[in-house]
Amino acid sequence: MKKKTNIKTVIRKIVREEVAMAINEVITELKQPTQQVSQPKPKKKIVEKKKVVKKKYTSNSVLNDVLNETANDDSDWETLGGNGKVHTTQDATSLIRSKYSNMMGDNNINVAQMAVESNVNPEAVPEHVTDALTRDYSELVKAMDKKK
Predict the structure, then answer these.
(1) pLDDT in tens, 120-136
(2) How many domains are there within the chain?
């Protein structure tokens, strides 16, 4: 039992000495003047602002600011990825047809395969969803085209 107390005492003494040395090092470092390395300041971009036309779209000022910001934005959102052509709502039908042409007129849609590709259990797909996916929409599309 006496050996354990002696070991504890020795360990405490060593720890105190080490802590005292570390504190002295920190104090001497704090007393010395520090040299600050100055980082070069990044150059600011000179942005030429175009004349912003503010329209009043709504009486809500926050929403109006957001709508004006969107209207005056020069990003490529209008070209849907920067392909150069500005798309409008008139192009929606042709875009949808081009993206989903493989499904048009094909009544042999494999709903189970689509469910697996979407990380859904094929047995968990409700019947009304299966009916909607396998329905022949050609008459609906013809009626929409006729109305246009």
Answers:
(1) 888 888 888 888 878 88
(2) 2
